[in-house]
Amino acid sequence: MPLTEAAQSALCNPGSWDERPTRRARGSRLPFQAILRGMLRQPSHADLLETAVDLEAFVADVEAALTAALDDGTHAGPEGPEVLMEAARNLILAGAAKRARPRLTFLFGRAIDAPVDALVDVAVAGELIHAGSLLHDDVVDGAETRRGRPTANALWGATAAVLSGDLVLTLAFAQLRKRRRIITSEAVETIATMTRGVMAEVLARGRVELPLDQWRAIVAGKTGSLFGWCARSAALLMEEDEAADRFGDCASRLGIAFQLADDLLDLQRLGTGKDAFNDILNREPTFPILVAADRSKEVRTEVARLWNAPRVTPGNAEALGRAVLATGAGAETVERLQEEIAAALEALGPYAERPGGREIVAWSKELETRARETLRPRG
């Protein structure tokens, strides 16, 4: 029996991970065999089907747990204003929230036979940490929309958004109460790393000369660290320290690859649901922008001119996006993404041959394929 479209997409299409499980993007999937090309070994059809079905059930459990946590009035306190939870629900349960971290948590957990109920707790905590950081980010950035919807910052103001983000972080810790203390301790360290990464990102805004090693350190902090925590925690549930080290290294590199792919998407209007050219509008020195500025004096001059102006217009941002890609910076971004993925899979080691691990390899290869696809000319 052939795999269903939903099962294929859930298992191997990282683009579909930008949607909740009931809302799949259409018309963007590659043939299933192409998705699996490049895997270390071809898993059986039955194995793939079982993992896809189990993954969908897992994501549904995570969604239910998130909803329960955010609908629990006790979290706001007996006199707590409902606006804090309403602001959190506006972001987390909006329907277009990313669930890449919970899905990877499941796959890493499957590779080491971690119990599903414990993995749900880790996945929910990871998603709440991610959401708390986004609520704060939208205040730092003065953002009015995210994923095409008004932000908490726009709807209720900066104070409510910041305090909602704080409350959401406490919900993450509450989700981990039944789990090993080291998992919570590392969650605290991860949030500190993310915070430092975001501060470094803010300080780097407008810096067209930012060295690429500094760019990577920023991304590793603000994005890779949470990917790494989710993966490490799956192994720590089983008290497998060697696996935790491998998983953390692998996932943090996949987080950087994920960011590189996102940076490419930002430079084009592809109908993915992601707001285009935000990085240019926000003066964010992403990898392709930095590469293009290094390759082309004209691009470097234009970036500096726009970022020194009082306001970057959407039209100017789109024109600059085309100029960046015209330098070949997109291809170099894909090459860097491939390097990060190769190092990630090397870190995964023998677990790449296990159920869960094989799907991580497939997801990595599909991420690479989709990044290349964004560079194809469109008529």
Explain what you see.
The structure is a single chain. The radius of gyration is 20 Å and the shape is globular. By secondary structure, the chain is an all-alpha fold. It has one domain (13-20, 35-373): Orthogonal Bundle (Farnesyl Diphosphate Synthase). The chain has helices at 5-12, 32-36, 45-71, 83-92, 100-111, 116-141, 152-156, 158-175, 181-204, 212-236, 241-265, 278-281, 287-295, 297-307, 314-326, 329-348, 357-373, and strands at residues 145-146, 149-150. Mean pLDDT is 86; it is low at 1-12 and 15-42. Helix 4 (83-92) crosses helix 8 (158-175), helix 5 packs across helix 10 and helix 10 crosses helix 11 (241-265). Strands 1-2 form a two-stranded antiparallel ribbon. The protein has 17 helices and two strands. The longest helix has 27 residues, at 45-71. A hairpin with a 2-residue loop joins strand 1 and strand 2 (149-150). It starts with a helix and ends in a 6-residue tail after the last helix.
